[in-house]
Design brief:
This protein is of the alpha+beta class and 211 residues long. Helix content is 38%, strand content 11%. The radius of gyration is 18 Å and the shape is globular.
Length: 211
């Protein structure tokens, strides 16, 4: 019996534990969910809820068109992604993977997931980040059960075939530009990235400093 329960834990067959929360660290039903959200006591992954604000999702356009061009939106996102990645890595420790949701549902909107190489680093980051603010709002950070983003992502979205759009219950991960991905993940010397982070910080005025 114990082996059977372990085999279905976090799957659709599990009638006790929420499979959505287990897979994506969030559930559209929130606290009203009829199944248990098992919050991890240790994990490599942290979640900062609703941190990214897409300019095309936050601005109402009466003509139904995008408020900013795709190029401007991508540049805005790349700047956000690089700022958060570099500062988090410099302050807390090496990042294995960082992902940002582009979904529209409240439980996934702007969620930022960061997976560290070590659980201890993730725990330290959660304790510190919950005392910080971003763009004038407090950061809500917690350990996340997500360990494999391939299981959390919408496969139809990756193929351009998701019919649920931004309200899909699985992650629609917003991609960063190829050059930024190469810079952050290509194995470049980390001290070089830290120098770039400090240089970018000094170049900003206090008004522009968001994080």
């Amino acid at each position: 019996m114990a082996d059977y329960l372990a085999s279905i834990f976090g799957t659709e067959k599990d009638k006790v534990n929420c499979s959505f929360y287990f897979k994506i660290g969030a559930c559209r039903h929130g606290e009203r969910c009829s199944r248990i959200h098992n919050k991890p006591t240790f994990s490599q992954t942290i979640l900062m809820q609703n941190l990214y604000l897409n300019p095309n999702n936050s601005t109402v356009n009466p003509y139904g068109t995008k408020a900013v061009s795709m190029e401007v939106e991508q540049a805005h996102f790349d700047e956000f992604f690089e700022d958060v990645f570099l500062e988090i890595e410099e302050k807390y420790g090496a990042i294995e993977e960082m992902n940002v949701c582009d979904n529209m549902g409240d439980h996934l909107l702007g969620n930022v997931y960061i997976k560290f190489y070590e659980e201890e680093v993730a725990e330290k980051a959660v304790m510190s980040l919950n005392n910080r603010w971003f763009n004038g709002t407090p950061i809500h950070c917690e350990l996340s059960p997500v360990s494999d983003f391939r299981e959390a992502c919408c496969r139809q979205y990756e193929m351009g075939e998701c019919t649920r759009g931004g309200f899909c219950n699985f992650m629609h991960l917003k991609p960063i530009s190829r050059d930024l991905k190469r810079f952050l993940y290509s194995g470049n010397d980390r001290s070089h990235r830290r120098r770039r982070s400090r240089s970018r910080s000094r170049s900003r005025s206090p008004r522009r400093r968001r994080y």
